[in-house]
Amino acid sequence: MATAEGPPAEGLLRKKTSFGALRADEDEDGAGRETHSSADRDADPEISSLSNMSQFSTGLSVDSDADSAMGDLAAPMSTASITSSVYEFVEEYGRTFHRYKQGRYWMPNDPTEQDRLDLQHAVFLMLLKGKLGLAPIENPQSVLDIGTGTGIWAIEFAAQYPSADVLGTDLSPIQPDYVPGNCHFEVDDAEDDWIYSRPFDYIHLRLMFHTFKSHQKLIASAFEHLAPGGWMEWQDYYCQLQCVDDTMKGTALEKWVRMYIDGGQRLGRDMLAPRRYKAWMQEAGFVNVTEERLAIPGNAWPRGKDQKKLGLWQMTNFLDGLHAVSMTIFTKGLGLSPEEVELFLVDVRKDIKNLGIHFYFLTYFVYGQKPPLPHDGASEPPTAAT
Prior knowledge:
By secondary structure, the protein is an alpha/beta fold. The protein is 29% helix and 19% strand. It has one domain: Rossmann fold (3-Layer(aba) Sandwich). The protein contains 9 helices and 10 strands. The longest helix is centred in the C-terminal third of the chain and has 28 residues, at 305-332. The radius of gyration is 20 Å and the shape is globular. This is S-adenosyl-L-methionine-dependent methyltransferase. Belongs to the methyltransferase superfamily. LaeA methyltransferase family.
C-alpha cells in the first residue's frame, strides 16, 4: 500500500472504540507468504491439508512450552461493546441481523458483532504489518469497499488518502456518524446491478467468501466499473482450516469445519471460493493477477511473541463469531436444532482454545488490474509500495 498522504485520525473520527490502533509493525517472525503471478495459468489443486501444499511455508513454529510462554496473553480479549444501535433489525437466536435483503448475509450486526469486526480488522493489520491491502495502487481517487461492516477499513483508507473519495457499502447501516469528509456509506447489495456514476480506481473486499451466490457475476461488475488501470482485491479465509501436523485429526473442530462447508454449500454458497478467485479474475479480463497466501494461527500455539499475539486475537475473533455463524448454517443448512448446535459448540470451543492443536487459517490475497489504456503503457504491474 502506498505511503499515507496524511496522518490517520482514528481516535477523532469514530464514536466507538476501535481496534484499528492495535497495529503491529514489529512482527518478529514474519508470516509465511507464497506469491503466484498471472503467468502461472494452471489452477492449483484444491487444498485440503498441508500435505498438498509442499511449496507453502506458514512461517509458524510450534512452541513446545506454549502455556508457560503465554504470560499476559493467557486469556481471551474482551470485545465488550460501548456502542448502541438506533436501528430496528431482525432478531434471531438472540442476535440482530440486517433487514434489507434479509438472510443474504449470515452474520449478525449487533454491537457485539461490530466489536468483533473491528478486532478482525486489527488481525489483518497485524498480518499485513500495518497495510490495508497488497494491490500496488497508485494515487487512487475513487475507492469502493464492498461489505464495509463497521466501515473501519474505509475510514482508515480515507484518512490515509485524503484526495480519494471512499465509498463503503453494506447491507447493514451500522457505520459511525463521525468519519472523514472524503468517506461515506450506502446500504447496497453488491449482487444487484451496479449503477455508480463514476468508475473506481480500487475495489476492495475482505472476508466475503460466503456472501455471494455468484462470485463471477460480482467480478464482472467490478471489472466493468473499474477505471482502466484500476485494481480489485480480495482478502479472504480458505475456510478449510489447515494444521501443521496431525493434532487436529479426530477433533470436534475438524468435524465443525466439515459441517460448516457442507451446510454452506447446501445453502447455495461456494464455501471454498477463494481458491478460484485468481482464475475467475483472469477469465473476466483482469491482468497482472497475483495470488498471495498467508497463515493466521488459530490460537497462541506458535513460537514468538508476535505470532502468539496474532493467534490470541484470532482465537478471540473466532470464538466471538462461532455461535452466530454456526447457528445460521447448522440449523438452516444441516437441519440441526439450536439445542444440538449449542451442545456441539461446547467441545468446539475447547478445541479452539487448546494450544495443543496447531491449526491455522490459510488466508488468500488476490488482486488484479483492469488493462490500462494503450497510451498508458504499463503492461507490467507497478512495484508494490510500502
